[in-house]
Amino acid sequence: MNASAGLALPSTLARTAACILRKLEGGLGVLCALILGVLLVVVLTTVVMRYLFSAGFMGSEDLSVWLNVALIAFGAPLSLNSTLAMRLDVFARLLPRRGQEITSITADVFTILSGLILSFGGVEIMTMLGGVSPTLGLPEWIRFGFLGAGGALLIIVLALQRLSEGRSLQIMAAAILGSGLYFSIPHLALSADWPPSIVLGLVAALGLIVAAPLPHAFLAAAYVVIAFGSTLPEPAIVASTVTGMSKFLLLAIPFFLLAGGLLTSSGVANQLVRFASALVGHRRAGLAQTTLLTSVLFSGASGSSVANAAFGASTFQPELVKHGYPPAQAAAIIASTSVLDNIIPPSVAFLILAAATNLSVGSLLVGGFFAGGVMAVCLAVAIHLTVHEQTPLPRAGSRERWRSAVAAIPAFGLGVIVVVGIRMGVVTTTEAAALAAAYTLALAISARLRFNTLFAAFRQAAAEASAIGLLIGTAGPFAFLLAVDNVSGFVTELTTVLGGSALAVLLLSNLILLAVGLVLDIGAAILLFGPILLPAAVAAGIDPIHFGVIIVVNLMIHGLTPPLGVLIFVVSGVTRLPASALFRAVLPYLFALLVSLAIICAWALIF
Fold it and tell me: Does residue 513 belong to any structural domain of this protein?
């Protein structure tokens, strides 16, 4: 009887934790979707008042920034146990079971430490900070309170997840270790012959190896180096994190993600497929070329390679296989063409780069058109040479082409709103993104989508934007500490040793990016290495916009390379094909993209 009761207790605890976790995540999902909806209304109201009534909305920009910080804080726990957590688990999977348990506990230590930093650091700033926002009339500490609450929720959600999985001992061990580290580090004064940035990199690397979420690895590393003489105390770490995510430009990210999700849900994306098929479907490897052209067209709408990879895998994979394509090759074509979505505007990657380097978003988008065109041509040639389609599609008549073009006009309208609006200076990048989201919402409503579908699109966009925003914020203190140790100066000196020419800078920069892209998420790599490499490029006479485009193109290619290969894993997850087979099948298309990178670099040298 007692033994039976003892066995039932853990099971009951797991069920109770799972029930609480579902309700908590459901509540956070509703809250984040609501915040995103309010954000959209605020920005759209600002646009309407300015252009129709020549009036302003007092404090609209500050209100939007504060809401975005709240969205990131409350959305962070939603991505804790998903691909949005940005975990590099390839090393942990190679270990035996006991080793995996140890790495899992260590990864949880990073998360708990990060949650404590945000919670206690946020509270400390709240007690220190005075004053009232002049535009909102609200105490300034509220913005930091959001992140403090988010840190506490992060720990609660992690604990509930582990309890629901029956791993109570693991979370207890991680809690003891994480708390011990947090409270002991401020009292330690460790000496090392290396500058703090070396220790910073080593701690972050440890986080990567044990599969800790990337933002948590950055935040924990910035805190640990306090014991090694860091000039950034805990309140400053949190303040730097909040400052990093408090940029009006970053609001464009959730709006673009929402636009892409609504475009797919409304069925408008399928009209792009029909139009692309009518144009190139009858050619050699016509269905594969249709996949490529759809990616080019869809790029002007979603701005997210992951979104296009998921869409293409579900839409094209069955048709490609039906027309005689080997399954792995079909999936590899889908993954490789999805690279274009973060190159051809609008592009979330360019937004992140602009936020990190203060480069012009409009100029980067123009550069993205050129780069995307070069990459598309190289992929088209590779597809033509590698695919021998058994059953090509019939040639579409002029009437069918006309009808498909007319049906695709709503999708093209989205690209016009975004690119023309930004480039001509009619609206800001964030306002253009909000208009794009409102436009696709209207399309979704006209398609009579159910409320649950619309809510799911808002929730998904909010969760994705929160994960990206947390990464941007936590990269702030990390990048600051790298700047203190003059890492960018070291890179400049290294290029001088190599000759200091533009060619030397491009070769070294591309080698660095090709290396870090193997183990870092593209957003993290842009945030950390964009500000480091850009000064050396400018000193060598390279146009900063050209160089910014090269950074994004280089890093996007890593969506196809092991061990991270996020596009490969997305397509693998949808198609149920092993990722190892896809990594082999994508080699010819990876080579084509590297050729396109070389062409873009040559263009930068010539012009």
Answer: yes
Distance CA 201, CA 198 (A): 5
- 471 part of a folded domain: no
Mean pLDDT of the chain: 84
Please tell me whether residues 209 and 276 are part of one structural domain: no
The CB density around residue 45, as the number of other CB atoms within 10 Å, is: 13
Examine the domain organization and report whether 263 and 241 are in the same domain: no
- Which tens digits make up the pLDDT trace of 159-192? 999 999 988 999 999 999 999 999 999 988 887 6
* Sign of the dihedral defined by the CA atoms of residues 347, 465, 552, 316, in that order: negative
Tell whether the model's pLDDT for residue 39 goes beyond 80. Answer: yes
- The more confident residue out of 46 and 413 is 46
Nearest to 479 by CA among 275, 154, 221, 151: 221
Neighbouring residues of 442: CB distance < 8 A, sequence distance ≥ 6 = none
pLDDT tops 60 at residue 391: no
**Residue 2 maps to a domain:** no
Residue 462 belongs to some domain of the structure: no
> From the CB of residue 99, how many other CB atoms can be counted at a distance below 10 Å?
12
How long, in residues, is the chain?
Answer: 607
d(CA 466, CA 461): 8
Up-side HSE of residue 17: CA atoms within 13 Å toward CB? Answer: 20
Cα separation, 582 vs 548, in Å, equals 29
Q: Is 211 left (phi over 0), alpha (psi -120 to 50) or beta?
A: left
Helix locations, 326-450, DSSP H: 327-337, 348-357, 361-386, 398-407, 409-415, 421-423, 429-446
Q: How far apart are CA 79 and CA 72, in angstroms?
A: 11
Say yes or no: 384 and 513 in one domain: yes
Q: Which of 348, 264, 371, 368 is nearest to 313 (CA)?
A: 264
Question: Quick one: 286 and 232 in the same domain?
Answer: no
427 and 552 assigned to the same domain:
yes
Rounded-to-integer distance, Cα 62 and Cα 73, Å: 17
Q: Which of 246, 277, 300 is the last residue of a domain?
A: 246
Report the alpha-carbon distance of residue 446 to residue 309 in Å, rounded. Answer: 26
Whole-structure pTM value: 0.83
- In a shared domain, residues 242 and 254: no
Report d(CA 185, CA 438) in Å as an integer: 48
Q: Identify which of 335, 263, 334, 253 has the alpha carbon closest to the alpha carbon of residue 298.
A: 263
**In the listed set 246, 266, 296, which residue is the last one of a domain according to the structure?**
246
Q: Please give the residue that has the higher pLDDT: either 545 or 467.
A: 545
- Are 339 and 560 in contact, with CB atoms under 8 Å apart? yes
Convert the pLDDT of each residue in 191-201 to its tens digit. 767 778 888 88
446-471 tens-digit pLDDT? 888 888 999 999 998 899 889 888 88
Adjacent-strand bridge partners of 139: 132
- The pLDDT assigned to 5 comes to 43
Its domain, for residue 167, covers 11-246
Q: Are residues 333 and 426 in the same domain?
A: yes
Measured CA to CA, the distance from residue 358 to residue 354 in angstroms comes to 5
Looking at the 3D structure of the chain, how many domains does it have?
2
Within this chain, do residues 32 and 170 fall inside the same structural domain, yes or no? yes
